[in-house]
Specification:
Helix content: under 10%
Shape: globular
Strand content: 35-45%
Radius of gyration: 15 Å
Number of strands: 7
Oligomer: single chain
Number of helices: 2
Length: 162
Amino acid sequence: MANYRSFFPLLPAALLAACGGGADKAEKPGNVAGAGAESTAPAASSGYAGQLTPGLYKIQQTGAMTKDDTVCLKAEDIATGKVIVMSESFPEDWTATTDRMADGGIQLDATGPNDGHIEMRGTYTAKSFEAAWKMKYSVNGASNTVDSTVKGEFVSEDCGEG
């Protein structure tokens, strides 16, 4: 059976703990302040006006954090037009200031503890997506940055649910 995660970065528990989040936090975000508000760096667009196709996706994350996975993206989650509603890894103590997935563009901005900031920009088509994301935070006064890219390709409408 496929995991129900989105293409939102798969952040390890140790990194989230350093930033004030963690595995013990609720995994579905309830704190979306100003979702849909515009940021200074708008999302790119693939020119595609529809939604992602629901189903099983092969996910590949590269850069500072690497991981290959398969995820099931549900129609009802895709229909929200938001990135974090589909995520298991978005920490409860972070707040999304922009959360938008529309018109072929992906845009997410969030703030969190320890001067934390996440910025994600990308594009999608009916059966694929690609996004670059950057997370900045401070630990003991030292600034840290994590950069990664995540890509997803549609595999099947069947998520193996039975």
